[in-house]
Amino acid sequence: MKNMLCQTLDLKYPIIQAPMAGVSTPEMAAAVSNAGVLGSISVGASTPEQAEVMIKKTLSLTTGPFNVNVFCHAPVVRSPELERTWIERFREIFDRYDAEMPAELSEIYQSFHNNEKMMDVLLTAAPAAVSFHFGLPSAAFLQRMKSRGIITLASATSVREALEIEAAGINFIVAQGIEAGGHRGIFSTDCEDHQLSTFTLVQAIRKVTQLPVISAGGIMDGAGIGAMLRLGAAGVQMGTAFILCPESAANAAYREVLKSEKAASTVMTSAISGRPARCITNDFCHLAREFMQDCIPPYPLTYALGKALAAAAAAKGAHGFGAQWAGQGATLAREMPAAELVRRLVAEWQAS
Fold this sequence. Notes:
Strand content: 5-15%
Strand order of the largest sheet: 1-9-8-6-5-4-3-2
Number of strands: 11
Distance between the termini: 16 Å
Helix content: 25-40%
């Protein structure tokens, strides 16, 4: 297909499987890439050593292009009092599940900012594409990736962010609408989030930039793909659509809730991780309704407690505190192998 995304990355079809940290796997990315679209893994939640293993595993399973995603969140500003107060809020729940509360919050995920070890891993592996979430790396890092022929993509939730991406020399803008599951790619949580829909955001970004735009958020089938391409998008990025694939790392509880009526209700919350993210409405989301934003510690400190609480509850058979990220189209997710899903999506798109 003669399309900017396809030509640049040697794809058959302009579809990207979203790099969902904790869900996407080398097996999924490889299956998707082998089917002619862009598979993705995320190393945002990984150490450089873990990232190297994931990338090598993916390379062993496919000769096709794939994307590696990193997190570019700002350095954490610590507030001991805020953090102690946050931990104390959950004492009763930890007691309920006979679990010990964390004594302190920890920065469980490293940012890609100034992360030389992670940069070395990427430069050595030189995947076809690297994508950025929560912001952008330094100009020096970007130049080093360009020197290795790596194509770059970055998430934008607003026109302002899209213009920053263009100015940085990134190749593709991923326009993440409010419908999207998982973490908003917003650069700074201190800025107002205009919460534009994918439909509106794609048009608004295309009006002010010449960069090709990838649509992300709420796209679950071939009809959605066709609609976004007709709108002028160079391609689509789909995440929730792939969660039920057997190659995904989603656990049994996550899969069960995604296949249930509960998937029809999603909500944006910062209480699980410290950054706004769309989750299937569960016990944690209900609890979070009483929290004001300014009482929540920054990402990823909050996520340290969120993961501890989810593990404590799950050990007692309660799965309502997990990070069950999903987009607004979650009820349309289908359970089938990733390559088969790609073929189904392409057939639906061509029929539309």
